[in-house]
Amino acid sequence: MLPNILVHPVHFEDFDGRNFERLVMAYLVNKFPKSKLKWLGIVGHDEGRDIWREDESGETYCYQCTKTTLKKEKIFSDIDKICKARTGIPDYLIIITGGIISSNLYEKIKIYSESKGIRACECWQGAQFEEYLRRDFEILLKRFC
Predict the structure, then answer these.
(1) Which of 37, 59, 80, 109 has the most Cβ atoms closer than 10 angstroms to its Cβ?
(2) Does pTM surpass 0.85?
(3) Sign (positive/negative) of CA torsion 100, 102, 103, 109?
(4) CA separation (Å) from 119 to 42, 68, 89, 90, 141?
(5) pLDDT tens profile 79-136
C-alpha cells in the first residue's frame, strides 16, 4: 500500500516561457542522453522549433513548448513554420503545454501535422508532463519548482 502523501500540482503558468523550455530541455537531456539536442528557442528566430532532437537512428523530433493552454491558430501557425524551417520536416512533433488540450483540438493538431508530412504527433498536457517528470526525474521538480 502506498503512503498517503499529498502532492501539490506544478503551476507551469508561473514559469516564464524561457524557464518552461529550460525545464523541457533538462527533461530531454536526462531522458535521451545519447541523442543530439539543440535548444533553438533560447536564441530566438527558432522557426517554431523550440527544441530539436535527433536520435541515434537519425529520426528527428521537434518539441514545441508552451506554458499555457494551446490556441488552435497559434499551434497551426507554429506547425507551418516548423515545416518550412531549414532543418526540414521532422519525423515527430511533440507539443508540450503547461495547460490543457481538449481531445477535439488534439485530434485537429494530429490531422493537421500529418497533412504537412509529419509522421506522428503527440501532445502532452501539463498534468501529463508533470507525471513524466515525477516518474523519470523528480529531481528536476526540486530544481525548477
Answers:
(1) 109
(2) yes
(3) negative
(4) 26, 25, 9, 8, 31
(5) 999 999 888 899 999 999 999 999 999 999 999 999 999 999 999 999 999 999 999 9
The string of DSSP letters for 55-89 reads -TTS-EEEEEEESS---HHHHHHHHHHHHHSTT--
Place of cell 522549433: 49
* Side chain identity, residue 4: N
Report d(CA 75, CA 55) in Å as an integer: 24
Q: What b/e readout covers 44-78, taking b as 16+ CB neighbours within 10 angstroms?
A: eebebbbbbbbeeeeebbbbbbbbbebeeeebeeb
* The three three-digit cell numbers of residue 14, written as one number: 508561473
* Distance, C-alpha 66 to centroid of its chain: 8
Are 107 and 121 within 8 A, CB to CB?
no
DSSP state of 9: P
